């Protein structure tokens, strides 16, 4: 038994696997170091970092998770989530016009945005089916194009062709939607999801860790008969993580530090967890298998009788709907809708975040999304202050994070393209040698 | 009949046809609304020369087979550096074109080096150039934001009076602002003709045309047209792609200097970020595709694209006084054209 475990450990943690792990996750590892340095040099109080970070994670994570399904379907990183966000903002504007606030208002936003997002998603998907092999740049340019149409509708059609009389939404002369809209006026949408239920973060973490440990013990006892050494290691690892979380939480809770009062919006977290579960469950369904097959090889998928174009359409539609919902969650937390600006950067930032977490154009998981959001937003919080303390100029920190956002996307795309070219070359040489 | 229409449509290209129709429509609207045509003509000519060279930078890139150069900001940054260094070193006497000529000469080594490095990078990622190019451009621009703060420029007209770094916009009044625009400029019935600017643009087109007739130019074109055939006939395709990228970057650097002098300001920080898209859209409107382009495409495309924007502006403002309809129109037209071209790439199977 003990020998078995030793062998397993050797197999799992031999130098070559460790090396491969380091290479595979070089991006997250590098940015963990950068973030830690940033946290150290920013000299910001821990409670501020934890509190802001938590708010930003719950705000942004849903949008980032919306990127995963298109990656599985081989469509790459969906820059078209900007279009989904526009659908979400259309819905918010309508609900503002009706003046419905609170949780009903939020649900109405979701309900209105869904059909709009489906339509937008279908149009984006049609376009992407016409531009196979160039999906990502097409979705990006489509986002720019849609932004033009969005502005045209809201600036020039509202008040002329679309008769809306509403002082809060429409500019003083009666044409065009205002630049910024306060979501808390005329039916309060601000925090309409976040404030439903808020509990102290570390109490929740401690409770979750205890429940997970109990579940694991129960699970272990049920499956005891067929156990193998590897599963013992896995159980052990998971239990260690849970214990670590538990011990840290208790340590924080018993300390006098103000960090223990940081609150977690429970419903928002549950919604995000729901999307994580959806992303992993869908892979086990027939649709999920189709998505994967299409993602791996469109030819093989076609031969095995999968309607490739339709499967890709479904992937993009799902992603667009989630993006719309994600934007609504985002906006209810921010509280102010910048009508012509809130959606513009979300694709860049979300994609940069998931790439920081170690995802690539052809592979993305929930875990990478979560890690990526944590890293990206830590960088966002600490870099101005760190830039100020290191260079005497807060701007440099801000510029640095913009550079990281664009740079990490550029490098990831470049690496992907490079691998594709190398793979193509290899294929060609093997064909020749045959 | 329908067949002849179709062949003609194919020959002229759908984008060019639609945009021409749109241009004529806007012009008719301008006539009906009694717009001041002297002003419009001056504006169209000025912006034609201003954006022309940036669009011209697309031609060698497309011809060498790397597709439209979405990484135009790389060349733009090199040009801006040249323009800044020329002012910093006070090379702004009248005989040097108030700094215009030194600006171009200083930017050249930067552009050649950057184009060479970037061309080598592009050879490693054949087939995905456009997307990678876009984000390479974005990365360089956002990286240079740090550069504009950190670089040791000292000229009082360029740096912030308080604090660190270069200003966001730097006025060129005392240096080479409008130097080409005002060179031999004259008026026909009140319409200003910026002779120097137009001559410089057409001169650049002519130089590129002469190059494309040379042996190297023909080899460049063949390696973009049909890489396999080119390789079979002993042409080094990769080398030609690098050459195309170097040329494109150099032209972009010159282009931004001409742009700045015409505009009267150097714009730094995030401003060059989206510079590539209007230029790409312009050559596509002119009849180019992502695989084939001629110099005439750049000339026609820039004229149509800028013409529409200039003429539409007062027309739109008369119809809807509030808001910037012309800017929204630019976004829609520009990106629709690029999307249309992308659907014609035909990389799919």
Describe this structure in words.
- The complex is a heterodimer of chains A (434) and B (349).
- Chain A is mostly helical and 434 residues long.
- Chain A is built from 17 helices and 4 strands.
- Chain A has helices at residues 2-12, 15-24, 26-42, 46-65, 68-72, 81-98, 102-130, 135-157, 201-222, 229-254, 266-281, 286-296, 298-303, 308-334, 346-356, 366-391, 394-433; strands at residues 180-182, 198-200, 263-265, 336-338.
- The longest helix of chain A has 40 residues, at 394-433.
- Chain B is mostly helical and 349 residues long.
- In chain B, 69% of the residues lie in helices and 3% in strands.
- The mean pLDDT of chain B is 84.
- At the A-B interface, helix 8 and helix 17 of A face helix 7 and helix 15 of B.
**Given this structure, which CATH class of chain B is correct?**
Mainly Alpha
Q: Largest sheet of chain A, if any?
A: 2 strands, antiparallel
**Largest sheet of chain A, order of strands side by side?**
1-4
Radius of gyration of chain B: 20 Å
User: N-to-C SSE series of chain B?
Assistant: HHHHHHHEHEEHHHHEHHH
Question: What is the total tally of β strands of chain A?
Answer: 4
Helix segment tally of chain B: 15
What is the first-to-last residue Cα distance of chain A? 48 Å
Number of domains of chain A: 1
Count of helices of chain A?
Answer: 17
Instruction: Give the CATH topology of chain B.
Output: ABC transporter involved in vitamin B12 uptake, BtuC
Oligomer status: heterodimer
Strand order in the sheet with the most strands of chain B: 1-4
**Beta-strand percentage of chain B?**
under 5%
Mean pLDDT of chain B: 84
Q: How many structural domains of chain B?
A: 1
Based on the model shown, name its key terms:
A: 434 residues, mainly alpha, two-stranded antiparallel ribbon, globular, disordered C terminus, B: 349 residues, ABC transporter involved in vitamin B12 uptake, BtuC, two-stranded antiparallel sheet, 15 helices, 4 strands
